[in-house]
# Entry
Amino acid sequence: MSGTSLDGVDAVLLAMDEQGRPHVEADRFLPFPSSIRQQVLALQSVDSNELDRAAQLGNALARLYAEVIAQLLASCALPTSAIKAIGCHGQTIRHAPHAGYTLQIGNHALLAELCGIDVVADFRSRDVAAGGHGAPLVPAFHQDIFASDSENRVILNIGGISNLTRLAKALPVSGFDCGPGNMLLDAWCQQHTGAAYDANGDWAAGGLLHQALLQQMLADDYFRQRPPKSTGRDLFSMTWLNQQLAAYPAIPPRDVQHTLLQLTARSIALDIQRHCPGTASVYVCGGGAMNLALMQALQQQMPGIAIRSTAELGLPVNQVEAAAFAWLAWRFSHRLPANLPEVTGASGLRVLGALYPA
# Structure
């Protein structure tokens, strides 16, 4: 899995038992070289020579994916013959379900060639073809492994975008993108400090809230939409942020960082209050789970709800997303549907993915 945070590639080795229950055996992370990160960012907006640039970047991503897979297998002393399939999400560069498409790049044929293992990829397109958003897809996985008969839960992933899954005893499963997670925080921090991200949220913690800016950002139409809904860098880009800041040019950068952190926390809390009644616990995963200031802000926004880690449910925060796409590949291999129409808005259940045989 390589997501909207653009920090790198997460890989897990997932074993399925006889009852179809997943177990993570090992994991590996490989950071993005700065050149790949910049190329992905450049393809987020319309520019010249996109077809060639996207194809070349897809090749580079396939080689990076193959490298992390080789490292993962070496760490477990496993041959490629031990692996049924690679589930590969690819790298999202455009997400436009309103226009009938979502685009994740990564040369999956090259990945199969490099690894000698079947590759299952392109999970989102079939859901979009059925009228859905193609996202989020992980709620079906969350339901399978995290649902409880005794507790109303929310599983919250904070990557570049924040998204949640509602797992309530008396309500159907629901899931959607809340808004920006780490992406604006990371971009603003890098622009003003040179650091790739704000470790522990320390820089943001030393800033002050600019209430008018926060309210202006929360007034964006996306935050008022009802699920199903999904978003990405197509909306919450630095262009969007600079437009928001145009009315407040004198805000100190550190105060902007603090306000962006509060935007992430407030938008998540508002969605849980509106759409997840009776929630007892929120279990957080993704890179944002390691941002202490953000976790504190979430707790302040939701004082009656316990903010926990998915590690308490058996999956460390850095494994959940990659494990979900391994699980999706397993579903595909058994020709089992893997979307939740009530989450994505698709017209029905669909088998997701496309096979690139070794």
User: Anything to note?
Assistant: The longest helix spans residues 50-76. The domain at 8-133+319-356 is CATH 3.30.420.40 (Nucleotidyltransferase; domain 5). The mean pLDDT is 96. Residues 216 and 244 are 7 Å apart (CA to CA).
